[in-house]
Structures are given as structure tokens and as C-alpha cells.
Automatic annotation (TrEMBL):
Domain MIP18 family-like: 11-74
Pfam assignment, any one: FeS_assembly_P
Protein name in the entry: Phenylacetate-CoA oxygenase subunit PaaJ
Domain PaaD zinc beta ribbon: 115-156
Annotated source species: Micromonospora orduensis
Length: 158
């Protein structure tokens, strides 16, 4: 049997398929009841309005069933709220490699982070501009690089 934590950690985000839910910071806890062997997974949703959570729940249950843990329960907790700061260093590197500009660190609650520092994931130029608040999904904004004129997705800081 595969460790349930390892099995759940390999589930990828359905919208950003290069990054796992563990790297995104969505996966909060994986507990196995020693008596029954039943696994309970706790997740915290990312952006409100992201329709991906139902898919993630189903994917976690499927991954655990494949690892020998049938009938896993997936719980959703909203507190503390997910933040883009929970994305791991490895996750940020994967986002950049996939052409998605990772979110800038959120410095303090209530302080709007400067989006001027968004760098083009193609050429690294800071000469970028926001084209649309909404990219391919509600979680991402569409940006364009003024140096190489390539459009790219930017994961909004939260
Ligand atoms: Zn560029």
C-alpha cells in the first residue's frame, strides 16, 4: 500500500496541470484512522470561484483508491484562507517553467502588492503589462511582455 499522504500529494491541479495540490498548498492534512484504516484528507480551496475543487476532490479519492485506500473522505476547510504564499518554491519554479508567472509574495494583509514586478516567464523582462484581469481561468490574469510581445498567464497573488 502506498502511503496515503504520498498518494494524495501527487494529485495535480486540474487547471494548472504542471503543479500538484501539495506544491500549491491546497493539501492541508492526510490522516489515517489506525483502527479502521479510513483516510481523511483535508484541503483548503484556492480562489473562490475556481470550479476546480470538485475535480480535485474526485481526483484525491481516485488516487487514494488506487493506492489501496478505498472510501477516503475529503474535507474542506476555509480557515485559515489559502494564500499564494503557500505555494512551495518547487511549485513556483514549475509555474515559471510552464510559462505562468508565479505570484509575488504577499507582504502584509491588506497591502496591495505591486504588480509592476511581474516578469515575463519567456524572456525575464520586467517590461510587462496586464491585458485582462482574467486569463484562461478566473484564477489567472492575462499579461503581455513588451520586450518579446509574448502573452502569458500570471497567477494572481492572494
Ligand atoms: Zn518577454
Amino acid at each position: 500500500m502506498v502511503n496515503p499522504r504520498d498518494a494524495a500529494a501527487l494529485v495535480v491541479d486540474p487547471e494548472i496541470r504542471v503543479i500538484t495540490i501539495d506544491e500549491l498548498g491546497i493539501l492541508r492534512a492526510v490522516e489515517e484512522d489506525p483502527a479502521s484504516g479510513r483516510v481523511t484528507v483535508t484541503i483548503t480551496p484556492t480562489y473562490t470561484g475556481c470550479p476546480a475543487m470538485d475535480v480535485i476532490r474526485a481526483d484525491i479519492r481516485r488516487a487514494l483508491a488506487a493506492a489501496g485506500h478505498a472510501d477516503a473522505e475529503v474535507r474542506t476547510v476555509y480557515s485559515p484562507p489559502w494564500s499564494t504564499d503557500w505555494i512551495s518554491e518547487g511549485g513556483r519554479a514549475k509555474l515559471a517553467a510552464a510559462g505562468i508567472a508565479p505570484p509575488e509574495p504577499v507582504r502584509a494583509p491588506g497591502v496591495v502588492s505591486l504588480t509592476l514586478a511581474v516578469r515575463c516567464p519567456q524572456c525575464g523582462s520586467p517590461e510587462t503589462e496586464q491585458v485582462s484581469r482574467f486569463g484562461s481561468t478566473a484564477c489567472k490574469a492575462l499579461w503581455r511582455c513588451r520586450s518579446c510581445s509574448e502573452p502569458f498567464d500570471h497567477l494572481k497573488a492572494l
